[in-house]
Amino acid sequence: MRFNLFQKQAAPADSPLPPKEARKLILRGEAPANLRVDGHLNLSDSPDLERLPEGLTVASLDLNGCKRLGSLPKDLRVRRLNLSGCGLLVSLPPGLSCYELEMRETEVRELPSDLRVEFRLDLSGCSRLERLPEGLKVGTLLLNDCVSLEAAPEGLDVNFLDISGCVALRRWPQNGRIGIGRLRAANCAQINSLPGWLTDVAQLDVSGCVNLAELPEGLRVASWLDLANSGIKSLPASIEVARLRWRGVPIDERIAFRPETITSREILAETNAELRRVLLERMGYESFLNEAEAETLDRDRDPGGERRLLRVPMEGDEDLVCVSVICPSTGRQYIIRVPPTMRSCRQAVAWIAGFDDPDDYRPLVET
Amino acid sequence: MWRHGDVLIATTASVPPDARKRPNLTLAYGEITGHSHRIKETGAAELWESGGALFLKVMNETATLIHEEHLPITLPRGLYRVWRQREYTPQQIRQIAD
Hints:
The structure holds two protein chains of two kinds.
Chain A: H1 5-8, H2 19-28, E1 36-42, E2 57-62, E3 77-82, E4 97-102, E5 116-122, E6 137-142, E7 156-162, E8 176-184, E9 200-205, E10 220-226, E11 240-246, E12 249-251, H3 253-257, H4 264-269, H5 273-283, H6 285-291, E13 295-302, E14 305-312, E15 320-326, E16 333-338, H7 345-352, E17 365-366
Parallel strand pairs in A: 1-2, 2-3, 3-4, 4-5, 5-6, 6-7, 7-8, 8-9, 9-10, 10-11
Antiparallel strand pairs in A: 11-12, 13-14, 14-15, 15-16
Chain B: E1 2-4, E2 7-11, E3 20-21, E4 26-29, E5 36-39, E6 45-50, E7 53-67, E8 70-84, E9 86-88, E10 93-95
Antiparallel strand pairs in B: 1-2, 2-8, 3-6, 4-5, 5-7, 6-7, 7-8, 9-10
């Protein structure tokens, strides 16, 4: 798609207004129809702005945080449009075509089927967004934390796609394209597969996709694959991955797929603090604390059973201090890391709950 | 104050004026299991969000907070603040989920 809005339209008779002048007229409610504005029109955080003049033409329009703006004029012509935080805006006019559209954290539920965005469409945090138009084609599509979205649209065509935190997303289209770019799908807990048409991607983040156990046959990942806490336990020979990452930290296949081979001695000897933290996470706090003969700083009891506060000194880094608690509902043991300054189980458990003063933490019911 | 697994709930006086209503009654999703902490009765409550903080408005006489692995908690009519427990890492504090 080519963006040729300004070339094709006949120029109105009046010459364009400077943005400052146009802003004053619009905020006073005195702007005429078919107003043309030169350059960037900043109307962000205008608390009383409810509507724009019909036929407005502007290269760049910032309406970020206009909380009373309820609609856009049908014949708005704009190249870059920012609608983020326009809390009353639930739909876009038909026929809207722009180069870049940002509408983070709006209440929009769906987009018009004829929407055209060439470069970048940012819908991050649109928690009510339920569906996207079929055949949506845009360079970069940002959908992170769109928690109501259950399916990617049929015929999706993008180069960069971010669906991180789309916790309800479970369906891919039969046909689509993610060009040689990036797919970020972190913490999409419902996803159990990636589409078969995904063949080449530079960067792939499936960290936290706990139900994703396999990648498509023949997939090539040119730069890196982040698989922290995903369901992927091995990589078949048909899949080519340049490098592995664990929440951003470069790792090798042994750390990713054979964590049982990691020892406490190896962790204590690792000089790279980031890698050491990954090794610790892969080995598990419980195994490490046992193997490294952790010192017990405190012990007491709560409704779940015995609690213990444990410490292992880490050379060149903060001490590892963890509290071991038992869930009263499930009977499961949890080992949770706390600040190294903690001295009692009570203090540590209050800190986990968000309280720096243990006296402030007094739950009525714990289940 | 109530504790439902890794989710904590306490009464509060008001919901911030800039809060946005959430489309569902899911207080928190499990990171590992796909389970969720949620209100059982549709329409019994509303969930609001402001700056990453969650607020629960129970409009019926009571609402029931449920999860696949935890006993239910009955919350009386009122306003509540909802938050997740945290875990320490040397670089940052991140929320944890069961």
